[in-house]
Design goal:
By secondary structure, this protein is mainly alpha-helical. It has 17 helices and 2 strands. The longest helix is centred in the last third of the chain and has 41 residues, at about 355-394.
Length: about 400
């Protein structure tokens, strides 16, 4: 019997998420007692993180196996579209049903995903399968060895380091901003939910623009612009905290709807050029390992960023009853987001390898056509000379 990576991952991760959300839906104490609530959310995030890593690996292997360039951008488009639908569904359930029903609906969707994955034919994925007779230990050792060899190359390690550090060094204050919006500004949760929907729509549009117009651009200036916009977009929360938007006649609800999710979306979007490049440059047979390593390190950097945000909030005295220093924390967060611009030399300047190979193929074809043209011209000249000699003899 054979098992694809997709089946194995779904068998391991979906039950974790179903258990977490189903328990919060069926047992009242699970969603009201803080320790159990934290434990179930942690369990759900564990399953989601494993799925995220495996998804990136599958996209990379499938794209390179069937020579689909830039498949990561299409995967991000699908993810953004799913985020729009998911946030709309969550917002509707939040307005019309109690939390118990929302948790059970989410657990039902995850169960449906598990059933569909297990019922899918393994051959439909078109990816290598793992046989029961194969040595798992030997396979793991081989993959680790290939991964170490791949990430030691500068063209892979340097952009990887920049992407991870640029996330890890920024303290995340989104939780404090969310509490400020709900507790101080008294914004309705549906407004914040709709801001997430608008943010996912912006991410979808940005991904389409990248796939059509930006993926052929040199990587360093592109990432430089995205990181600069990300650092400046954090200051949008500063404007909200200082209520500067009211001076321009923009209400808090409209401002949050339009601008609240912009920094979060840019933080997600800036990873796309790195994912496309690393997937195209990793050695043959190591695509999934490198992409999984990238996803894992990005998850770790986000955890570090969240811990730094908690530490910063405690350091400057941001509490549930005191948000007077939140604006200072946002300024520190913005400055930290601009710091990665100082070591942009880690980001490669050259265009993606895919485009280079395509142009190289075009140049080879043009040279071949020129050679063919020269051969044809030479044959025509020889033919004319023979005809002239025959006419002279006549």
């Amino acid at each position: 019997m054979f098992f694809t990576l997709e089946v194995v991952v779904e068998f391991l991760t979906s039950p974790l998420e179903v258990l977490a959300w189903g328990s919060m839906g069926m047992f009242q104490g699970a969603r009201e007692v803080l320790p159990s609530l934290v434990a179930f959310v942690l369990l759900s995030n564990l399953g989601a993180s494993i799925t995220e890593v495996a998804k990136d690996a599958l996209v990379a292997e499938y794209g390179l196996r069937y020579r689909i360039n830039g498949l990561q951008s299409f995967a991000l488009m699908a993810s953004a579209a799913g985020g729009v639908l998911g946030n709309l569904l969550g917002g509707y359930l939040l307005l019309t049903t109690p939390p118990k029903i929302s948790f059970l609906v989410f657990a039902g969707l995850l169960s449906l995903q598990l059933v569909v994955s297990l019922s899918s034919k393994e051959e439909s994925f078109g990816l290598p399968r793992i046989a029961e007779t194969s040595s798992v230990l030997e396979s793991v050792k081989t993959q680790i060895s290939n991964l170490k060899e791949a990430i030691q190359a500068d063209e892979i390690s340097q952009p990887l380091i920049w992407a991870v550090v640029s996330i890890a060094m920024v303290p995340l204050l989104s939780g404090s901003v969310f509490c400020y919006q709900t507790q101080v500004l008294n914004l309705d949760p549906s407004v914040i939910g709709m801001s997430k929907v608008i943010g996912q729509l912006m991410l979808l549009c940005l991904t389409v623009v990248y796939d059509r117009y930006l993926k052929t651009l040199p990587m360093r200036p592109l990432v430089h612009i995205i990181q600069l916009l990300y650092g400046l977009s954090i200051l949008l929360d500063f404007i909200l905290v200082k209520q500067i938007n009211l001076g321009f006649g923009i209400s808090n609800e409209i401002y949050v709807l339009c601008f609240s999710s912009l920094a979060e979306i840019l933080a997600q979007f800036k990873i796309l050029p790195f994912a496309v490049r690393l997937a195209s440059m990793c050695p043959q047979g190591c695509e999934g390992s490198v992409t999984s390593f990238l996803a894992s390190t990005l998850c770790l950097s986000q955890i570090v960023s969240a811990f730094l945000g908690v530490g910063l909030a405690n350091l400057i005295g941001i509490t549930s009853s005191n948000y007077s220093n939140l604006s200072s924390g946002i300024l520190i967060q913005s400055l930290a987001a601009l710091m990665p611009l100082c070591f942009m030399h880690f980001v490669p300047m050259s265009e993606p390898v895919i485009e280079k190979e395509r142009k190289r193929g075009i140049s080879k074809r043009s040279r071949r056509n020129r050679r063919v043209g020269r051969v044809v011209d030479k044959e025509n000249v020889d033919y004319r000379r023979e005809r002239e000699s025959e006419e002279a003899q006549r």
